[in-house]
Design goal:
single chain; about 325 residues; alpha/beta; eleven-stranded mixed beta sheet; UspA; cytoplasm
Length: about 325
């Protein structure tokens, strides 16, 4: 499998434990490939040292970069000694998400992994502004890793859109399912489940149209979604028992099913648009993400246009 051979791990600078690095090692051990452990750092106080010469400021910054690089190497030491190929890179940049995306573009990384913090009481995943910017703008798939071990027998749940209102949904559904099946077959032979949600009858229609029969409407909508799901699963020879068509809002149906199945990861599409709107995920996708309690893999459509470029005024320094 050619996919996911060049992994970029965004290192969390605030803790020694690195779940995203562990997950990347897990993937590489089963699928091959290489890892780059990447950290973007910035300290405004170093820019304020006006009494120092530019060379002295550069030297101070480089010493901080070197120090953090050594710290990351210590985190990677066990994996490197076990034969995992890991490169360490630290840059000076005041916008971490831009630095990460520019690295993805410059080096052709095909998967970005980053830790997502967990809400202690609710068990839900908390996404920072950097996380959201990466999910919205990163051109390669983004794997948000929850700070917990992969569940025993953890399944992969693919959230598909079975309504045919928008033409981009069909090719995106196919891409999501194909990449998930490829990943599952090469990594952990896990079950791949497909889930689609269909809407309930709008209450205002039922009230305004006395002859309107909600049950007939619901049956018709469900029937359309079942037909679409059957067509999709048959493309990949997926057994019907691994497909789920549920009534309700996607942001409720998908997280509930993922929890019921004890899923290790939910795979969903981050809708790509052109121009300025390329900075945003679809509203439904964002709401689904907010309710998840497991890992998330967000994949862009083929026509996604990244709003971040390498033409940037920020100063970068390699390790």
């Amino acid at each position: 499998m050619a996919k996911y051979q060049n992994l970029l791990v965004a290192i969390d600078p605030n803790q020694d434990d690195q779940p995203a690095l562990r997950r990347a090692v897990y993937l590489v051990q089963r699928n091959g490939g290489r890892i780059k452990a990447f950290l973007s750092i910035y300290d405004f106080s170093y820019e304020m040292t006006t009494m120092l010469s530019p060379d002295e400021r550069t030297s101070m910054r480089q010493s901080v970069i070197n120090e953090r690089a050594e710290w990351i190497k210590e985190q990677c030491k066990y994996y490197i000694e076990a034969g995992i190929q890991i490169e360490v890179k630290v840059v000076w940049h005041n916008k971490p998400f831009e630095a990460i995306i520019q690295e993805v573009i410059a080096t052709g990384h095909d998967l970005l992994l980053k830790m997502a913090h967990q809400h202690d009481r609710l068990e839900s995943v908390i996404f920072t502004p950097t996380d959201w910017n990466l999910l919205r703008k990163c051109p390669c798939p983004v794997w948000m890793v929850k700070d917990q071990p992969w569940p025993e027998g953890g399944k992969a749940v693919v959230a598909v859109n079975l309504s045919s209102e928008e033409p981009y949904h069909d090719p995106l559904n196919i891409k999501l399912v194909k990449e998930t099946i490829d990943l599952a077959s090469h990594v952990n032979q896990t079950e791949v489940h497909l889930v689609g949600a269909y809407p309930v009858t709008p209450i205002n229609i039922a009230i305004e149209l006395p002859d309107f029969d909600p049950s007939v409407y619901n049956d018709a909508i469900r029937g359309q979604h079942l037909i679409a799901m059957k067509a999709l699963r048959q493309k990949f020879q997926i057994d019907e028992k691994f497909t789920h068509v549920e009534k309700g809002l996607p942001e409720e149906v998908i997280p509930d099913l993922a929890e019921h199945l004890q899923a290790g990861v939910v795979v969903l599409g981050a809708i790509g648009r052109t121009g300025l709107s390329a900075a945003f995920l679809g509203n439904t996708t964002e709401q689904v993400i907010d309710h998840l309690k497991c890992d998330l893999l967000a994949i862009k459509p083929d026509d996604f246009e990244c709003p971040i470029t390498q033409d940037d005024d920020e100063e970068d320094d390699d390790e």
